[in-house]
Write a structure and sequence with these properties.
984 residues, mainly beta, Immunoglobulin-like, eight-stranded mixed β-sheet, signal, Gliding motility-associated C-terminal domain-containing protein
Length: 984
């Protein structure tokens, strides 16, 4: 065999020389792929294109004779498709041949479309030992023909799959894949395929298997080293960018490989393209040019994007620089797409470097973007630099640099926020206004989604502005509402708005997927509602009942006067009404006091000492109290409620004795924040009478219950050192002083730092050793052994639990003095388990009855005679045995037999069924959702559907262990039979 070196590559692509071996038989196909696009909104009609690349250097006549290609459509049909004329060249050795047809699928489904051409070109080293002309060319593309995907297209591949490489140098190829729908793309290596037969009439012609004696290119000979020599040769694909790299070839020759491009939408794989690529490896002195790194770009739509491109050639050769990607709107052979891939304007590289520039070659990528080009996925731009060797026959070599352009929606402009007064619309409302948003991407045909404006709110206005490239809302904001994109005003009248609090608002534009995403967030608009309500500023326990002989507890409540009153709020006389509820989270408020006031200067009207009453004393030792203050004005001679304060509770304190220690925990429920503040702990070694010494300071970092373990140390020496071991024979008493402040600056300015005392709580150290853990078992279901009718018509279920209590654990004896066992249960896995039953010892079983499902999780704890509960046993969960099946025929003819399409006998544990029916043309004719499927053969609008075959998809949600699942998707067809009488 001898090699022949070709001349220059022609046209806009580049000038290059390919070295290919001579062949003794006709050979022609180098590479190719299949792409599709749906072209009808009313039917599943697709334009299907097989793009192939032919060797005309050694197989010109055979390539000319390949006037048809066999298409297999994946639905049992096939067609000999003629080649489009005229044939176009991409260089002097290769033509691009296109075979295109239209095909309509009878119903929704997943279809694998294949294209077959009889012979590959010869002497491909890693196929059939080099005798590749005896192997046919076969590629496949898989599509999801589903109406909800709209006019979906597969990606188009804009960089030709024919390359050259040099021994010892790293070679890379990028397909420059562009998805016009904005779907996500992923890449993986595949094996080239061939058909079982080359005859159209042969039923095996549409079946494929790996090409004969295939090896990855780097495995054809003993692998050499990578270009930098640090490891063995590699062949990889970047799953995100699509860069396929062989680092590095060892021997000259012709090689083929394949990779798959996956198309994803909303986390679902909706299609795959297989690209078959050919690379010719040569030996020689030429070295590939080098491209400077190109940074990724993030820019708002409407921006002119420019990126400098610089390439140098180590041999001093001239360099061709070309760009590939959707924004260029150019096919693999550099012809403009019509219709265009995306709205113009299109990207360019200037000056034109398609015929070569002296090294170092410098050009500029330019793209004037617009809102019609917005999409969630970034645009991938591939820059290819190819040298033009000064002396022939050295083969031109190429290098690639890829960079991404993330085009984002500009921020909404001129957002303002204004408190709405009672005279103009309400006492708790904020009105937002902003400029009309006009930057919108195109909406995919058939999409039901529309652009929206998202409105967010956050307490406080001290937050930084986002990074210019950050889209969507900032952390800490809560979605208030969603409005149409054309809206320019909104009134927030949420019941959660609080007077005297500053609120930050931001808005974000959201576009329909898959071409959508979210815009940059707007600047914040900050506003405070006028403080027409009093603000509670203290709820402190002055006295604990039982301490120092006190018969009842005493709590002092303080507040600030209301501000921002205007004529519309009513006038004096005014009145405060203090209300009280039991419990830190109490909501059953009862009147405590009514305090008349004129709000005049010098009037003391912002404090009340609550002593309870003789019949209802405050038992602060065992109860917690929560207060609310309502403010009344006089309107038309009547006291009228204007506004109420946010409730605030007293401090709840608990003390639990342990071995040589006492654990304290406390909590509050207040409109002010107690986080980030030092709480003081006081202890008395002489009971409730005191004296109380401060022993510690706890800096509270997070909301919720606060804990402190006292082992006897006194960490605050300023009032005397009372350190000493805690005795099991003594009782110790404690008070805690919490420290808090309002987050809102204006509120804090009125109230300052807020300090509250807890009641006094006492405890003694003691033996708190926990019982050992029980071992739990549950009567689980064996779904494989159950008959489908096992739970037929059953609506109430029971689970039997059995457990054991160990004698020893970890080499130590377990406390045998067990009084009872607590059973905890959660209906769904992941939910918090709650106490559902208690069983007295020594019983070790429990039957959990009257359940709506057998699904659920359990654990058991043991409780000692001292009242100490063990930790949870092992958790055991039980799941269902789902059962649901559908018939394939029904006869809605009114004879009372099989008139309704329903599930077959005994569906089990079904919560709901989503059901969609399509006719044979793929149009949706019926849809329902509910706990029971019952279709009477009519359309969603009530019309009688004719007899025939219909396709359905049923999404069955079972009431299993996982909330909202599991989900079973049933797809199939049903024959609807009715006579002519039934149609009338």
């Amino acid at each position: 065999m001898k090699s022949i070196c070709t001349g220059w590559w022609a046209g806009l692509l580049l000038l290059a020389i390919l070295c290919v071996p001579t062949a003794v038989q006709a050979s022609h196909v180098r590479a190719g792929e299949i792409t599709t696009r749906r072209i009808s909104n009313t039917s599943l009609t697709y334009e299907i294109t097989l793009t192939t690349y032919y060797d005309i250097l050694t197989g010109g006549p055979a390539a000319d004779a390949a006037k048809t290609a066999l298409f297999c459509f994946g639905d049992g049909s096939r067609l000999e498709v003629p080649r489009q004329e005229p044939i176009r060249k991409i260089n002097s050795a290769t033509t691009i041949n296109i075979y295109r047809t239209i095909h309509t699928y009878s119903g929704p489904g997943t279809y694998s479309i294949s294209g077959l051409i009889r012979n590959r070109n010869n002497m491909t080293r890693n196929i059939n030992g080099g005798d590749s002309q005896k192997v046919n060319f076969f590629v496949t593309t898989t599509i999801s023909a589903i109406p909800i995907l709209g006019l979906n297209s597969t990606p188009v591949l804009l960089n030709p799959p024919v390359d050259s490489a040099r021994i010892g140098q790293k070679y890379c190829h990028n397909p420059a894949a562009y998805d016009a729908d904005g779907d996500s793309l992923a890449y993986r290596i595949a094996t080239p395929q061939q058909s079982n037969s080359e005859l159209n009439e042969d039923p095996n012609a549409c079946q494929s298997f790996p090409v004969t004696r295939y090896q990855l290119p780097q495995l054809v000979v003993p692998p050499g080293k990578t270009e930098n020599g640090v490891s063995g040769a590699t062949f990889t694909v970047n799953a995100k960018t699509g860069d396929v790299c062989w680092d590095a070839p060892v021997e000259a020759g012709q090689y083929n490989y394949a990779f798959i491009i996956e198309e994803w939408r909303n986390g679902v794989l909706i299609g795959e393209i297989t690209r078959d690529v050919q690379v010719v490896v040569v030996d020689g002195p030429n070295r590939r040019p080098l491209l400077d790194p190109i940074a990724d770009v993030c820019a708002e739509a409407g921006t002119l994007i420019t990126q400098n491109i610089r390439a140098t050639d180590p041999d001093g050769n001239s360099i061709v620089i070309l760009g590939y990607g959707g924004p260029f709107n150019l096919t693999a052979d550099r012809i403009a797409y019509s219709p265009p891939l995306l709205p113009p304007a299109f990207a360019t590289i200037t000056p034109d470097a398609s015929r070569g520039l002296p090294s170092p070659a410098t050009t500029t990528f330019r793209w004037q973007t617009n809102c019609g080009q917005l999409r969630q996925e970034p645009y991938l731009i591939n820059i290819k630099a190819t040298d033009i060797p000064n002396n022939r026959p050295p083969t031109p070599l190429s290098s690639y640099q890829s960079f991404q352009i993330q085009l984002i929606g500009p921020k909404p402009q001129n957002l303002t926020a204004q408190a709405v007064s009672p005279a103009t619309g309400g006492s708790r409302a904020i009105r937002l206004n902003w400029s009309a948003y006009t930057c919108l991407p195109p909406i995919q045909s058939g999409s039901k989604d529309t652009p929206k404006m998202l409105i967010y709110r956050k307490e406080g206005c001290n937050n930084p502005e986002p990074n210019p490239c950050q889209t969507g809302i900032l952390p800490g904001y809560t979605l208030v509402d969603t409005v149409a994109i054309g809206t320019t005003t909104y009134t927030d009248a949420s019941s959660t708005l609080r007077r005297g609090v500053s609120y930050s608002y931001r808005i974000v534009a959201q576009y329909p997927l898959p071409t959508g995403g979210q815009s940059v967030v707007s600047l914040q608009a900050c506003v405070s509602l006028p403080q027409t309500a009093p603000v509670l500023s203290q709820v402190t326990v002055d006295s604990t009942d039982g301490a120092l002989g006190a018969r009842r507890g005493v709590i002092t409540v303080r507040w600030t006067r209301p501000l921002g009153l205007n004529a519309g709020d009513g006038g004096g006389p005014y009145q405060y009404r203090l209300l009280r509820a039991e419990g830190v989270n109490g909501t059953s408020f009862s009147p405590v006091a009514a305090i008349n006031t004129t709000l005049g200067p010098g009037v003391v009207d912002t404090v009340f000492v609550d002593r309870g009453s003789a019949t209802q004393p405050l038992t602060t030792s065992s109860k917690d109290y929560r207060y609310r203050l309502d403010f009344y004005t006089t309107v038309n001679g009547q006291l009228t409620l204007l506004e109420g304060s946010e409730p605030a509770s007293s401090v709840r304190l608990a003390a639990l004795g342990g071995v040589n220690q006492i654990t304290l925990n406390w909590q509050t429920n207040t409109p002010w924040s107690n986080e980030g503040q030092p709480h003081a702990i006081f202890r008395s070694r002489r009971g409730q009478a005191g004296p109380f010494n401060q022993i510690a300071v706890v800096n509270v970092q997070a909301p919720g219950t606060v804990n402190y373990v006292d082992t006897g140390a006194d960490l605050v020496a300023s009032d005397g050192n009372t350190s000493g071991t805690l005795s099991a024979d003594s009782s110790y008493c404690y008070r805690v002083q919490t420290v808090g402040r309002y987050i809102d600056v204006s509120q804090f300015a009125r109230t300052g730092t807020i300090r509250n005392f807890s009641p006094i709580q006492c405890a003694a150290p003691g033996d708190t050793t926990r019982p050992c853990l029980p071992a739990l078992t549950l009567d689980l279901l064996n779904c494989a052994a159950l008959a489908p009718t096992a739970f037929c018509n059953q609506t109430s279920f029971a689970n039997k639990l059995t457990w054991s209590y160990p004698a020893t654990a970890g080499g130590k004896a377990c406390d045998a003095r067990i009084s009872k066992y607590n059973i905890y249960y959660a209906r769904y896995q992941g939910d918090s388990l709650r106490l559902v039953a208690t069983v007295a010892a020594p019983t070790l079983t429990f039957l959990h009855q009257n359940l709506t499902s057998v699904a659920g999780c359990y654990y058991v704890t043991a409780v000692s005679l001292r009242g100490i509960e063990s930790l949870a046993s092992n958790s055991v969960c039980k799941d269902i045995c789902p059962n649901y099946a559908l018939p394939n025929t029904f006869t809605p003819n009114g004879d009372g037999k099989n008139d309704v399409f329903v599930a077959l006998a005994c569906p089990s544990f079904v919560e709901r069924v989503g059901f969609v029916v399509y006719n044979r043309w793929g149009a949706k004719v019926y849809e329902s959702a509910g706990p029971v499927l019952s279709w009477d053969g009519r359309s969603s609008s009530g019309g009688v559907l004719p007899g025939g075959v219909y396709f359905y998809e049923a999404r069955v949600v079972y009431g299993g262990l996982v909330r909202g699942g599991p989900v079973q998707v049933l797809k199939g067809s049903v024959l609807l039979i009715r006579d002519a009488q039934a149609m009338r």
